[in-house]
Structures are given as C-alpha cells and as structure tokens.
Automatic annotation (TrEMBL), chain B:
Gene3D superfamilies: P-loop containing nucleotide triphosphate hydrolases. Its main location: membrane. GO terms for molecular function: ATP binding; ATP hydrolysis activity. This is ABC transporter ATP-binding protein.
Amino acid sequence: MTTLSHATTSSTTGARPLPRPAMATYARLDLRRQLRDRIGMFFIVGLPTFMYLVFGLGSDDAVGSGNVAMYVMISMAAYGAVTATTGVAGSAAMEQVMGWGRQLGLTPMRPLAFVAAKAAVAMTVAAMPVALIFGIGAATGARGSWSDWVLAAVIVWLGSALFAIYGLAICLAFRGTNAPGIASGLIVVMAFLGNVFTPMSGFMLDLGRLTPLYGYAALARFPLTDGWLPVAGRDPLWLPVANVLAWTVIFSLLAIWGVRRSRART
Amino acid sequence: MIDTSTPAVRATGLRKSFRTATGENVVAVDDVDLTIRPGEIVAFLGPNGAGKTTTVDMLLGLTRPDAGTVEVYGMAPAEAVRAGRVSAVMQTGGLLNDFTVAETVRAIAALHGRTDRVDVVLERANLTALAGRRVEACSGGEQQRLKFALALIPDPDLVILDEPTTGMDVGARQEFWQTMRADAALGRTIVFATHYLAEADEFAERTVLMNHGRIVHDAPTTDVRAAYGGRTVTFRPPAEVVGTDGIDAAWLDRVRDALAPLGVTDLEVSAASLEAAFLALTAEIPVDAILEGASR
C-alpha cells in the first residue's frame, strides 16, 4: 500500500503495481444484492417450498423406488432452481441495458470474469431452494433410494444452468425493464406444461413433452421413476435427454442472436 | 519508466464518422489534434453534436478512431484504463438501483483491486453521510457524485468527465463543482465536456471549443472569453428610476449622453441573472461566494 499523497504519485508516474480484480468480493456483494430482493426470493424459495408442503407433504403412495412426496419434492426444487437462474441471468442482462456494463468496462476486469462471477451467483442462489426443499423432504417423509436423492439433487442443480441461458435470451430479446418479469412469468406457464406442478395426460402431455421444462424435470425424476409417468405411460430415457439438448441449442442460438443485436445498436 | 514530460493526452489527426439510420455518413470528429499536459484542467465546450462525447470515447478507448492516433500517458487508451491511469464519469454509465452507495463503491473498488480506497473516495465525493443509502433514493446530483467517486477509485492521474452536471439543478451543479475543485487542487489532470459556458468559465484553465467535429479555438479560458465576449461592465441604477415596466427612458438617455464621450457604445439593459438570484435565495453557500464568482 502506498503512503504517498496523490500529488506525489502523479508526478512520479509510471511503475505502479498492476491492479488485480477481487472477483470474489464483487460476487459476494452481487449475491447479497440478489438475496435482498424479497419478491424475487419469494418466487425462488418461498413459493416452491409452500407448494411442496401443500402437494407433497405426507403423500406416501409409492412412485418408482420412492414415494409421491419425493416426486413432488424434486419437481418443486426444480421449479425453484430454474426461477433462480432465470432471475439472475435476467438481471445480468438488465444491468447491461442500464449502463452498468459501461461502468464495468472502465475497470481492469475481463468480460469472461464477469460471466464467471454471475454464473457463481446464479448457481449459489439456485442451490438454496434445492437444499431447503430437499432438507424439508428428508425431514418429513420423502422416500427414495440414496442414489435417487443424490442424482436428483445434482441434476436439478446443474440442469438449472440451462435456464440461465434462457433468462439471458428472453431479456436480450424483449429488452426493457419488464423483461425479467416476462421471463419468470413464462417459467410458471412452462412449469405447468412441463408436468412440473400437476401430472398431465392425453393431448396436454403430448404437447408438454416438447416444452423446455419437461425434459429437465423428467430427467431429474428419472432415477426415482425410471421413466414411469404418474398418470399413465413411460418415457424412454432418450426423450428427456433429447428435449434438454434441443432446448439448450435453441436458447443458445437465441442468446447469441440477442447479444449480436444489442451490439449492433450501439 | 515514463519520464514526467509525457503528455497526459496526445491525439493527432483524430477522425471518426458514423453511419446514420438513413445511411448518411456523418463525420463526428474531424481531424482533431490535441495535447494535454499533466495537471491541466481542460474544458471541451460546444453545442450538442459538436463531437465532444465521441472525442472522449476515443480518449477512453471505447471507440476506435477511423484515422489518427491517441495516446494516454504514452499508452494505448484501453491499456491506460486497465492500468488505472485514466478513468471517467460517463454520460451513459449507469448505476444499480438496489445497491447502496457504499456497496456500489465497494463493488467497483473490488474490480480495480483497490478495496483500500473505498473510504477515501466516499469522503472525496462528499458521500460519507449517504454511504448507507440505496442508489435509487439518491438525487440526480448525488448519483453523479457517486459516479465521480467510482472514477476516483483507481487514483487516476487523469479524470475525464462527460457532461457531468446534465440534469442537475443549479445548487447540485455548484456543489458538484466544489467537490471537483477540491480534488483538482490535489494535482489531478481533469478534462470535462460541457455545453454550459459558465462551467468552462468558472472551472477550466483552458477551453477547447468544438463545433461540427473540429476544434475551432483552443486557448486559456480567459483568452477565449476575451476573444469572443470581451468584458462587460455592469452597474446598478438608483432605485427611483426603476419602475415595474423597466428603467425610466429619459434617465437612460442621460446615461447614454454622459457615457458617449468615453467611447461607450451598445448600452444594454438586462435584469440580474436568474441563476444568481436563485442561488442567492436558495443556496446554503454564503452569498458572498456567489457574488465573488459572478464578478470574476
């Protein structure tokens, strides 16, 4: 640390140590800002927890290698996790629109470090509903083999990263301050279509199989259900895998198009 | 080792043109040569669209010139930014509404690797009392001071301010420049773009007048004023000749006759500037200071 006054340093310019960005400090401040957003955190943690308590708690009917409580628990944790990643990615896009990106552009931080910090914040926030709902489930009678627990938690958590790309794509496509609201609103619609909230059958199920949350949620429940659906029928493993891969490509292309478009304007 | 004679800014033959939405080619900056020495306080003065912001963007490495070269302390501008030698308060730079003032400073300080500077810059920008306030609750002037604090974090040798007081009321503008003046006294090089003549007049030692992308005049501020405005002598008429509809015409004729032998022409009658009146009535700063400023 220098003890020289500014007037001295400016006349003896030149060899000053190259500053090293403290990315962890930045990420921590950013995370705290995210956690202060009460409405956002309600949808990420409060609502899915509440829905598990209403629909899952005490449902001991058998499903695959476990019970209904386990099935509902995984679904609601998945909803919470994708709401988290969508929200954080959406707010990252908004920061760029608001001009914070220009402010960051005047620091020595590299753009890739910013993406890494945001990803760390998103995955930390996404881990919260997963940890909480799995914890409540474990304490209140959700049952499954140990591998169901581990695989489901890992797939729910890591798979939610797909929806960070989705949140980015939507916010870049719609721009404007209400874009994050649109993104998380669409998540609710897609959660219904994706067989996350209530079991579907018939035409709605056929349609739902094509929507983004279906593959992700089905994959997270696969260790438990082995593909058997709550109402009737069975999905082969390739179906949710293909769904996730297809939507990864679609969201990525949308996001790339959005980034190109926002660059072209400036 | 860079020797001390390295100019803060050396730009030669800068040129930049943009294509408008209608496909027209507009030259924003046209053959600008500029050298700024360390410690100078320079105003870029000109109307909107004169090329000030484009020039500033090129000094910061945010825009690449079509032709010409820019060096900041002998380095490429982007490199100087990364090294913390130069920083800026930009017109388009934004803040995050849900950070507090202190958090905003801490976040940017972290990215500069200068967390040791947080308290110093808060105090410099006169924000210590507002540290815990959320950005969205700050006035436009306070947010602008916050951006100034962010610019001070790397302890830069050169600060560039692009229209720093846009949208501020008169009092906030005065307060902002007081903060700036205190900082400039420490020897920082300061370049600011403005379209308020008074700001260049009061604050800058050197004024660069820009219009249509070209530098039309570059001289000490006092010279620019002398060349374009001359000097103005004002005096106050006795109260009994001032009516609600102006000054008594017969009395004015007598003044004209009395002054004619002295070679005085273009006698003009104007009211006290509203800005001075407004300040005198509302500001917390002593009235003496304003009068002193007005008479300079």
